[in-house]
Design a protein that fits this description.
The complex is a heterotetramer of chains A (about 500), B (about 725), C (about 525) and D (about 100).
Chain A lengths: L1 H13 L9 H23 L6 H24 L4 E3 L4 E3 L1 H28 L3 H20 L3 H19 L6 H32 L4 H7 L8 H17 L8 H8 L2 H26 L4 H25 L3 H20 L7 H34 L10 H4 L1 H15 L5 H16 L2 H30 L14 H19 L1 H7 L3 H6 L3
Antiparallel strand pairs in A: 1-2
Chain B lengths: L3 E2 L9 H4 L3 H16 L8 H28 L6 E10 L2 E9 L1 H24 L6 H19 L4 H19 L6 H32 L4 H9 L5 H18 L8 H4 L5 H10 L4 H8 L1 H7 L11 H17 L5 H21 L3 H29 L6 H4 L3 H4 L1 H15 L5 H15 L3 H26 L11 H8 L13 H17 L14 H16 L12 H6 L15 H26 L9 H4 L1 H11 L7 H8 L4 H14 L1 H44 L7 H23 L1
Antiparallel strand pairs in B: 1-2, 2-3
Helix pairs in contact in B: 2-3, 2-5, 3-4, 3-5, 4-5, 4-11, 4-16, 4-24, 5-6, 6-7, 7-9, 8-13, 9-12, 9-13, 11-15, 11-16, 12-13, 14-15, 14-21, 15-16, 15-20, 15-21, 16-19, 16-20, 16-24, 19-21, 19-24, 20-21, 21-26, 30-31
Chain C lengths: L9 H17 L6 H25 L9 E9 L4 E7 L3 H22 L6 H20 L3 H10 L1 H11 L4 H29 L7 H7 L5 H18 L8 H8 L2 H26 L1 H28 L3 H21 L3 H32 L10 H4 L1 H14 L6 H14 L7 H30 L37 H19 L2 H15 L5
Antiparallel strand pairs in C: 1-2
Classes of the chains: A mainly alpha (about 500), B mainly alpha (about 725), C mainly alpha (about 525), D mainly alpha (about 100).
Chain lengths: ~500, ~725, ~525, ~100
Amino acid sequence: MIAAVSHLGTVLAAGDFTSPRVDYHALAPEIVLAAGICAVLLIDLFVGEGRRWITSTVAGFVLLGAVIPVFTLGVIGSDIRSMFDGRYVVDQFSLVLKALFLLVGYVVVLLSTNEIEEGGYYQGEYYVLLLSSVLGMVMMSSARDLVSIFVALEFLSIPAYMLAAWRKRDAKSNEAGVKYYLLGVFASAIMLYGMSLLYGITGTTKLTELGAKITATGHFRGAEALAVVFVLVGFAFKVSAVPFHTWAPDTYEGAPTPITAFLSVASKAAGFVALVTLIYVAFPQAKDVYQPFVWVISVASMTVGNLLALRQTNIVRMLAYSGISQAGFILMPLAVAGTGDSAESSLRAVVVYLIIYAAMNLGAFAVVIAVSRKTRSGEITSFGGLFSYAPGLGVLMTIFMASLAGIPPLGGWFAKFGAFKAVLEAGNGWGYSIAIIGAVNAVIATAYYITVMREIWMKPVPDGDITPIRTPGAVQAALVITAAATIVFGVLPGLVSRYGNLTDLTGAFGR
Amino acid sequence: MFLAEEAGATVAAGWFLEHAWLIPVIPAVSFAIIILFGKKLPMKGAEVGIASMMAGLVLATGLTYQWIVHVRGAAEAEPVIKSWVWWQSGGMKFGLGQHIDGLAVMALLLVTFISTLVQIYSVEYVRDDRRYTHFFAAMTLFSAGMLAMVSAENMVQFILGWEIMGLCSFLLIGHWWEERANSEAALKAFLTVRVGDIGLLVGVAILFGASGTFSISGINAWAVSGQPSHSVLLWAAIALFIACIGKSGQFPLHTWLPDAMAGPTPVSSLLHSSTMVVAGVFLVARLYPVFHTGLDINVAGQQVNLIAVIGGITILIAAALAFVQNDIKKVLAYSTVSQLGYMMMGLGVGAWVPAVFHIFTHAFFKCCLFLCAGSVAHTGSHHSFDMKNDMGGLRKKMPITFGTWMVSTAALCGLPLVSGFFSKDEIIDGAKHNNYTVFFVIGLIGAFMTTAYMTRATYLTFFGKARGAAAGEHAHADDHAHAADAAPHRVEGSASDEAQRVSGQSEAEASHPRQQGFGWATESPLLIVGPLLILATLAIFSGYLNAAPFHIEKFHHWIESSIGVSLPEAAEFEWINAIPSITLVAAGFLVSLFLCRAVFGEADSKLKGLTERSRLLGAGHRFLVNKYYLDDLYEKVIVHGVAHPIAQAAYWVNQHVIDATVDAFGRGGKRTGDWVYKNIDQRVVDGAVNGTGAAARGTGGALRPIQSGKVNQYGALLFSAAAIGALVLVIVNT
Amino acid sequence: MEFIRDQNWLLSLGTFLPLAGVLFMLFIPKKNELLQKQIALGTALATLGVGIYTLTQFDYGKSAKLQFFASTEWIPVIKSGYTIGLDGISLPMYVLSMIITVLVMIYSWQHIPSPGNPKAFFILMLVLQVGMAGTFVAQDLILFFVFFEIVLLPMYFMIGVWGGENRQYASLKFFLYTMFGSALMLVAFLALFYKTGAQSFSIPYLIEHGGSIAKNTAIWIFAGMFVGFAVKVPMFPFHTWLPDAHTQAPTAGSVLLAAILLKLGTYGFIRIAIPILPQAALKWAPAIGILAVIGIIYGALGCLAQTDMKRLIAFSSVAHMGFVMLGISTLTATGINAALFGMVAHGLITGMLFFVAGSVKERYHTLEIKRLSGMLLQMPKMGWILGFCAMASLGLPGLAGFWGEFPAILATYSPAPGLSVELFRTLMVIAAIGTVLAAGYLLWLFQRTAFGNVSPEFAGNGNGHAHSVGAAANDEHHGTDDIHDVNIFEWLAWTPLLVAIVVFGIYPQLMFKVFDPAVTEMVKVFGK
Amino acid sequence: MLVNNFLLLGAVLFCIGVYGVIARKNAVMVLMSIELILNSVNLNLLAFNQLWAKDNPGHVDGNTFALYIIAIAAAEVGVGLAMVLLIFRNRKSISLDELSEMKG
């Protein structure tokens, strides 16, 4: 007994265990979110069935509240706050993306409010899951370790699986959920195998050390290449890049539209964050592996995504494929991220693209939600003659579509422009070839975006019913935010590109 | 004044010489006035036009006087040149101005004078026409254009005037455009001339590119300076001459001129006989150094050259065609063509002064002839120009018209001691003197034919028995009423057109009470015969300005400074040399008279219907009637199914070479257009574009099976892609 | 290159003023059509006022320099600035765009085609105006690109919503064609940016440093820009969108398209492609020349094949722009001056022709040349206006059209040093033939439609007395009761154009003196 | 070296798992196959951890990673089974082939 105690004492004495220094300011967003999650849970427990809308309000405020520390951190300065021995880093890069995730989350909440309320689903749980998924993303943007990346990934995925299947009694929704789940888990399993190999080769899970050790011998060993590819596959799946995209259309179609918006924007962005982190921090040496790989999936995504989108009759499905091809464009700069001095502009291009893409795609979904409230249909033809009875929505949809098509002066053009600029800056064959392919694809893409505009402006109303659409306030707010962002980013790209101006971050990963 | 005057050396000369540029400006302004306010004026704008013409005439007269003084003063008369910078581009200046020398003075005087008379004449002739004001506006604008052209200081201004004339010609030929035929004729005229204009544009471009100036005096000086390479001059000359062929109705682009008779008679007399059509000749004369050097005219041993050949051919074919016309205006039209041929030939053989002099004289008598024809139609044949069916025996009814006609005919035929003789014979002599024997002969034959067809025309019109409208067969006359102006094709006019024209006739009838059994024809009113008398007088006496037989060479002195090159001294005139032409003229007269009496006269003769009996003559006659099949051999060949190789060849040549001008645009162009549009544009070019779109959608369809909806397949795809990717990269990188 | 920076707010004002009007109109209910129109027209007039003020303030002595020059930071990351300026080359087009917009609005006052909705129609026009004006003042490649593209959507909707039967196909074709062109153009711009050291997108800067690019690279970059601009011009074989777009577009659209939008392409050549990459231009000039001449002949043949008046005019644009490109391809001051003059002249004349075509369509409900006849009897004024425009369009001296064509032909005789003289002289002759073809189809059109007697189908109404114009023309209704002569709105919209055609025809110096210095400055590179 | 055997086993398990995911039509079986893969990963991690801990004791990254994976895998399976139940309740079958309403 005594011995035992004394033994314990010796252990404590011998063990050189020092609790890690925790920078609470840096962790504030995560903490706020965590607290919010609990708060929503409790509220959900205690408020009556009739007043569940409170949960959505609270969720919204939580997200906005989490933005505050992000801003304070950003204002305080660009000093990199690194914790847990550099495994969890808060720098401007992560701050920008945290802000993005939080705001996207907020817009999604706005979109969800009426949908969920009227759908008669469990509101409390819905927002809990949404918040936790956002929390996962926020963590992802700071994770600099294989483990934390993995945890963050699962943290944002698992709630997403459930949200996709949210409409319990709807077979399509179930199917969406299951497909997303099985493939997601499968992909992450493959990724994990790759990670295990990486760990085996380098003996560390910390990205910076990984970066230092990988291909230290100068030339690849087969295992390394295999590992790198497998890890990338995990995130290629998340960003729904061809040929890992197959889940996306089905899931998007089946899931509740706000969730579709969430998946197509936020979780895609999260995937890109992880990709960027890995590529820039862990695999700088491995560019011979990841560049060709990214090149191929990027080209495949643009092309296949476009060609399939041309055929779609369902607007959501069309947006899914358009999202795939957009992912191709976002990947484009990464295909040359390692060559020459294009590293910086590639990173910038990706971040800028993510921000603008979030704005315009969310906007598009917002309009889809607003319109489907009246038409109760997901068909593109259901937009027929929209301009004649709902000019506001018609114009907004036109703006978002044009922006996605990359027509100045709307945000989309600058996003694409940045991508092209980056690949051309590389100045090598890979760069030029993908630029040309991208240019051609950009034109093909306009074809299907414009079909939507054509429905809105030039086609008759399918069922002569031209009662104007009542758009709920929350959705209106979402529309205003996204539209404003889309236009402003297009007219004054200087703003967004300032946030995309991450020159000091590429170096910052190191700490 | 926005035009900055260029620091150009201008000799101090009289006021008129200094201000010759006013002459084109006045009509231009009055054109604007007529267009804007014409309809409101008491005489519907006619007075403005006439006034401006008279003003021009006054100025031109003063100009002429001062020029004569100027010439007498200086041994080598310097042209009075003024130039203002109009606009400049990339260092090159485009000017407006005046280049006043003998040639210009002559042309200015001529144009103002004739225009004045014709406009006065028109007041009566087109009275009550529904587009009276338009008519005078166009006439005035035409004069402006012509005057601007003849006094042009540089080639750009020249083109300006040239094109404006083309426009007016279009408007005036198509003046009665209710009938498709008239507008077709107008279109044909404009396009044919326009084909020639290719040459003008190209030629000017060449000259400018090579000489670096547009100024006419500059170009002429440069052409004789010997610095330009011969080939440049040759190409420039050829290009420009194409333009002259088009404008002056030379073979093979002459086909438009007869059709142009669709216009009102005053138009025919002003534009298509005396002034506009000589523009081509004028251009050659104006830039004679270029042509002379470029085509080696008068180089020892030269037998032929382009200008002379074209001129010569034109003389003969046109004259021959004149034989078979029943429309009096068309006789005159072909005669005009052949006279233009004389002028060209004259320039071609180096007889510059006679050629220009022929412009001068020809203007008077040919204009007079046309006006006579108009007079006849106006009050004699009830608006018909058909000599065979609607005229005859008018000499008693219309003595003045008859008299003036005879005088002018004499002049045209070149009877001794009237103007035509002094100009035409000089040309022929020149051809002989400069050793262009072929053209000497052609000239003689031409003289013979001229007399012959004019005799025929005269006989048919004024002698013999009154026929048709002339005889007062009113009903018969009426359906000719518009056909007269609907020449060349007799197309039934539409009701509205009929109405508006008949209104014109009705009072003409009212003023001429019809006697029973005989024609209602009487002499035309003063406004018509007045100009006739003046012109006839000049048709006689204008020749004496340069009458070689009497050693009068005033004209020669006044104008020779414009030649710009040294030409061989003209031959001393001897009556001996004139004998052949005179005899031929006489012969032509007698032969033709005999034939006419036989064929058309009352007395029975076995020559009647000869063409029907004798297949040979018949063929010849038909050949001529069909204008050598230039216009419609096509149909004939197809109809008669003649598959004879020669016929085929002729057909090909006629269609693709000679008459291709109009047809190329009319049919060929249209057809090519159709073909290109249908096959190339819509199929190939457009198809390619639409094809790609379809292809994209197609591939999209092909890709859809990937999205089978089966989780396992998705998983398989996912993993296999990962595995393959990994495998490849492993192999590549190790 | 130094700039004149005083009053540098002027161009921004002139460019963006229409947006103010758009803003107002957005908040005015659709019902209140009259107010909508008034605001739109008012804005356009105000803009034009600014334009005229610009004309008065422009220093013609220094028209080779960029004036009212303004340059501020816009997108620092990509080194692209908000750089605008105006010199002799852009001034005429800049003002012309404003004038045309006003006239089109006046014309549309009563001619809003179905499905009506003037609010949207006029808003689109104002947006279009911003794009057009902006393109002509932009001195930064990216800015230029943005404005160049802004034009796209409004025109797409104008054609697609207010157009003819086949409007959707036509509008889509127009859109995708142009997108394709501008995508390559953008890639070319970027390549230019990097090959000049990734310093700036500002055009003056690139003009100075364009020489540093390797010859072959330059040729490829030029190719990219060539496609981009050639589609817009349009040059053979990129022209097939034009006839459809023109034919289907509403009158206002066709006029804007013909008068301004086509010029964006040629302007791009003169402003960007040639000055920045003179060497490549020299290499490309023969190809451009040949394509231009093909365009001239080809367009003319296309015209001869047409049975529809509007389509004929559309094809004639291909031919006329061929002359413009021919002038450009000579790379001489004369040629480019001619091209610039031709741009404006074609804008005035073809714009006018489209106006007439629109009015004819509105009265007869058809543009079939076969069915039209005797217009001069029913609508003498309209008929003569058509004739006048036809004459101007076929290049009659004394009218504006001639000064675009003739100097181009002159210039082709002696192209810039280094270009094959033989080739260009051949081109000259073919181009001259083109003028005859032009006369052919235009007069043919005039003769068939204006001359002759009224076809029974439309006969039986007194000409002249005006009837009320129905805004929406329904095509089944062949009644002749609304066949009346030019009405007041048409007079208001047309008179300025007609006057301009005459004035510039009689005194071309008005325009030549504006851009001649700038062009002469520009072509110094070619030693001519 | 001992490690290779573990790795080999891991690889085998991985392949079996992948095969199961691709071949099995039954949702539960697929879930289990995925579990197999995860466990193969764990095996790898533990083996590698031994490898690296040889020269510096106290190196536990691999083990930690494995622990995380086990925990999260549990959560995943929980969600997965819940979904399977959901489907089963809605359509009385858990065959994946029937889950192909949405395609194309």
